[in-house]
Each structure stands twice: as C-alpha cells, then as structure tokens.
Amino acid sequence: RAKKDGPGRVVVYEPAMHAAALDYLSLRADLQRALAAGEFALQYQPLVRLDVESVVGVEALLRWHSPERGVVTPSEFLPIAEESGLISEIGQWVLANSARQVAAWRRRRPGLTLNVNVSGRELVRPGFVEDVTRILAAAGLPTNAVTLELTESVLMSDPQPAVLALNRLRARGLQLSIDDFGTGYSSLAYLRDLPVDELKVDRAFIARTQLTGRDMALLSSILELGHILGLRVVAEGIENAAQLEAVQKLGCSLGQGFHLQRPLDPAAIPPLLEAPPAYRAA
Ligand code: C2E
Ligand code: MG
Ligand code: MG
Ligand code: MG
Q1: CA 151 to ligand 1: nearest atom
Q2: pTM (predicted TM-score)
Q3: Which helix (H) or strand (E) holds 21?
Q4: Of the candidates 11, 20, 25, 64, which lies 20 to 30 Å from 144 by C-alpha distance?
C-alpha cells in the first residue's frame, strides 16, 4: 500500500495528468487561432410562442469547426476560453455577428428578438457594458431587442459586481435572463431582488414531463414562481409532443427545444419567419 502522500501515488497518476495537461494546452492553442482563422460559426435556435406556435426570437449558439478536431461543442471549449481570458474576444464576436444577423432578419420580421449567452467572467469585466452597447449600436440593433442570458451560478458566485453590471445593462435597455434555472442554488429571497426579465426553466424539469403528477406539480410551481416574480418564462428542452402539451397546459408562454426547432444554420431561419414553424404535433 502506498503511503498517503508518498511518491508511489505521484508515479501512478503522472502519465494521465501529463496527458490531460498536454490536451489542455493544445486545445487552448487551437482555440487561440480559431477566431482569426474564421473557425467559429453561429447557429440559431428559435424561441417559440407556445399559444400560436410562432417564432418570436432566436438564441445564438456558438459552434467551433476545427479543421483538426472536427466540431467541438461549447461545453468542451468554453471552460478553456473562460480560463484563458479568450472568452472576452469570442463573446464580442458572438454579439457582433448575431446582432448584425438579427438586425437583417428584422427587416422581414420586425420585433424579432435575440438571446445571447454571456459567461460570468464577461459580465463583470470592466468595459463590458460599454462594449455591449457600442457593438449593438454598430450593428443597428436596438438594445431592447436583446436579452443576455446568465446562469444562476454566475449570479450567485459573486453577486455584488454581477448585480451592478445587470443594473447598468438594464439602464441601457437590455433585457436579462436566468438560463438553466433550477439547476443552481439561488435562494428565493435573492431571486426576488435580481434585476432580471426572463427565466429559462432548465430542461431537467421538462425532460421529466413524461409525466407523473409530481413532475407536473413541480414544473407548475416553477412556472408560477416566475409569474409571481413578474418574469417571462421560457421552457427549455421541449423534445416531444407530450412535453409540449404539458407546458402549454401549464400556461407557459414561451418554449425552446428539438421538438419545436433545433439550433439551425442562419440560412434556415428566414423561411420560419415567413410561415408558422414547420413543426407539427404528432
Ligand atoms: P444553453 O444556453 O442552455 O443552450 C441550450 C443548449 O441545449 C444548447 O446546447 C442547445 O443545442 C441544447 N438544446 C436545445 N434544445 C434542446 C432539446 O430539446 N434537448 C436537448 N437535449 N438539448 C437541447 P449547445 O449549443 O451545445 O450549448 C451548450 C451551452 O453552451 C449553452 O447552454 C450555453 O450555456 C453555452 N453557450 C453556447 N453558445 C455560447 C456563447 O456564444 N457564449 C457563451 N458564453 N456560452 C455559450
Ligand atoms: Mg442559453
Ligand atoms: Mg439553458
Ligand atoms: Mg447554459
């Protein structure tokens, strides 16, 4: 048996740790080049008004097409982008591109809105609020057409600077959303005082909508909580007709999910703005 912090242990783990460190460094190096090399792209997932089933907005979702690695998912590269500080440049690229795109689509569909994910590190960066307003002005997209999505953990981990930034963004007309709601650990008292406009109920609650009475009751009370707080509520991750029917029955006004529309390349969006969404309940 190896001693507790003895050399035996180090030897056992070293090859794996070494490999992980190399992976990390090579991924970071590739990521550093990706932006300039034009390897990033955006997909757009429609936000659908559930009563009339029409597209009212889109959420921009970042994609990395690496020539060496193939498609790398955000969950694989975003943590590295955040740690290395690259997220700032990447985030500005996402906002500028999606804002220009949505400004163009609004000529066909005035009122179309844009949701953009923002990492916690970005939100509290000095100059972030000014950068956002400058980028939107340059793109010709009004600030009130844009909702920035933040996760609960971001808002809870360092609430004071986060709330300060939220208030400044709101003063400039932006809307704010809590993404993946219910997976973090916000206290209700804290939630009550957060300057946000929208709550996106995590798909963990909707995926369970298959549906026992208890799951329905839980989802129902989350939706009610949102409404009591005066927030717009979006049900994330609607994957089938039964789940759609359930959230509709519970009075949720907005939804997103593979059953409504998948994240799509930009070229696929304009047809959806002409006609009602292509989806039909089975
Ligand atoms: P998110 O903001 O909660 O986005 C929803 C994720 O769920 C997306 O994954 C989307 O493709 C996926 N999704 C949508 N509908 C369904 C469904 O019905 N079922 C299932 N199982 N999944 C569904 P994606 O694109 O891989 O993005 C993952 C996360 O990466 C996002 O979660 C967001 O937190 C982050 N992210 C994506 N783009 C950006 C970005 O531009 N900036 C930042 N900071 N984060 C981003
Ligand atoms: Mg999101
Ligand atoms: Mg989400
Ligand atoms: Mg998320």
Answers
A1: 34
A2: 0.91
A3: helix 7-34
A4: 64
Segment 154-173 mean pLDDT:
90
Q: What's the pLDDT at 198?
A: 96
Pocket lined around ligand 1, Cβ cut-off 6 Å: 45, 60-62, 73-75, 78, 91, 94, 117-119, 149, 179-180, 203, 237-239, 256-258, 263
Contacts of 270-278 spanning 24+ positions with Cβ under 8 A: 270/105, 270/108, 272/46, 272/55, 273/55, 273/105, 273/108, 273/109, 273/112, 274/108, 276/52, 276/53, 276/54, 277/46, 277/48, 277/53, 277/54, 277/55
Q: ipTM strictly over 0.85?
A: yes
pLDDT, one tens digit per residue, over 74-88 is 999 999 999 999 999
Ligand 1 atom 27: the closest Cα is on which residue? 74
Alpha carbon nearest to ligand 1 atom 22, residue: 237
- Ligand 1, atom 34, lies closest to the CA of 117
